[in-house]
Amino acid sequence: MSQGNNDVSVEPTQACVAGDAPFTPGQAKACTVREVLDRVGGKWSIGILVAASQGPVRFTELERHVEGISRRMLTLTLRNLERDGLLSRTVYPTVPPKVEYTATPIALELYDSLVALTSWAERHRNAIAEARTAYDRAHGGTA
C-alpha cells in the first residue's frame, strides 16, 4: 500500500510508460498494477472514494469526512482520482460555483473492497498498536 505521498504526483511517471516506445496522441499509457494500487490505496484516496461512492459529494463535505486531510492534499488527491477515471467532477454555473464529485463505475466496483479494508483496519487497529509497542519494547525502539 501507499505511504500516502503517491497522491501528490499529477504528471505521468515512467512506470506508466510501456517500455521506451513513444505514444501517439490518444494512445493510452499502460500503468503497472502497483501504480494503480498505490493510487486507490493511498492515504487519502480510500476515504474520498468511499464518500463519493455514496453519491455526489462537495469539496467541503469531503474535507469534513476525510479526517486530517489538508485543503491542498484534498485538491491534489481529487485531481489525481479524476485523472485516473475514478471520480467525475461536475461544476455548476452558480455564484459561487458549486462543484460535486461522484465515483465513476470503475470506482463503484471498488467500493465493497474499500469498505472491507477500512472495516478490517478499524477492527484491528488496537491489536496492531499493541503489537508495535511490544515489538519496539523488544527491539529497543521504533523501526
Task: Name the descriptors.
mainly alpha; Arc Repressor Mutant, subunit A; elongated; WH_DNA-bd_sf; 143 residues; WH-like_DNA-bd_sf; disordered N terminus; transcription regulation; 3-stranded antiparallel beta sheet; 3 strands
CATH architecture: Orthogonal Bundle
CATH topology: Arc Repressor Mutant, subunit A
The number of strands is 3
Strand content: 5-15%
Estimate percent helicity. 40-55%
Widest sheet: strand order? 1-3-2
Segments where pLDDT lies below 50 for 5+ residues?
Answer: 1-15
CATH superfamily: Winged helix-like DNA-binding domain superfamily/Winged helix DNA-binding domain
State the helix count.
5
CATH class: Mainly Alpha
Average pLDDT, all residues: 83
Keywords: DNA-binding, Transcription, Transcription regulation
Protein name: Transcriptional regulator, HxlR family
Pfam families: HxlR (PF01638)
GO molecular function, one term: DNA binding
